[in-house]
Amino acid sequence: MIKNVKIKNENSNFFRSSLFFLISAFLLLAFSCSKDDPIDEPESSELSVNAKVSGKTVDKAKLQMGKPAKDKSNKPSEKFKGITHDDASFSRDSKNVLVFKAKGKSNRSELRYKNGFSQDAKKTFEAKVQVVGEGKKHGGFTVMQLHNDIGSGPALKIEYHGDSKGNGYFKADYRTKNGAKNKTHRLKDGTSGTFKITFNKRTVTIKGGDKDFSFTVEKNGWDGKFYWKTGAYNQKSGQSHSKISNISW
Hints:
Layout: H1 2-32, H2 56-59, E1 61-65, E2 75-76, E3 83-85, E4 88-92, E5 98-103, E6 108-113, E7 122-131, E8 141-148, E9 156-162, E10 168-174, E11 183-189, E12 192-200, E13 203-207, E14 213-216, E15 226-234, E16 239-248
Antiparallel strand pairs: 1-2, 1-6, 3-4, 4-5, 5-16, 6-15, 7-12, 7-16, 8-9, 8-15, 9-10, 10-11, 12-13, 13-14
InterPro entries: Alginate_lyase_2, ConA-like_dom_sf
Pfam family, one: Alginate_lyase2
GO biological process, one term: carbohydrate metabolic process
């Protein structure tokens, strides 16, 4: 009987020793791989195009890249990764700001809001826009839009226009009648701004410029659904580069 007890005690000691070793090894491994460990951290301030881009903002949108006539990438952005396509790119920087680039006239990198709305709706779209890098010298590209499913063009485009020194301004290109020639209203000088567009039963109001600006689209001719867009859509040749944040739509 005594020998049997001794064997059991030895087995128990061996089990406790083994368990202690396994727990110690696990804690050491977990500590060495903690979330604060900068393993494979990107060297630049922007994540690579392979970095995952997700969140409520992009989950509500479709990514559109390349020239519209050649566009084959209007796919829902279901936690998609950063992408390059036809001299255009979309990614997210280290501060979770969305980064859009496009090169060449009529090229684009944009997010389109999935859900359209009718003429009788009341909707708002707000975003902080920063034009950076080579984009500051661009002759003209669109950063925000109010578009329609049916028609020859958007009801509203907020565009950035810069000179060779990187001095720029934002303007609103708009039309009250579908298919009509665009009218223009200068919003503000500079390379950044926070703009809020309100659509209220066909009356469109833009806040964020030097003064609030409003216009009303005609009832006839806008038979499709309206929807929002943001990013970089080149109206002229050159390299556009915008950073869009604080999007609410």
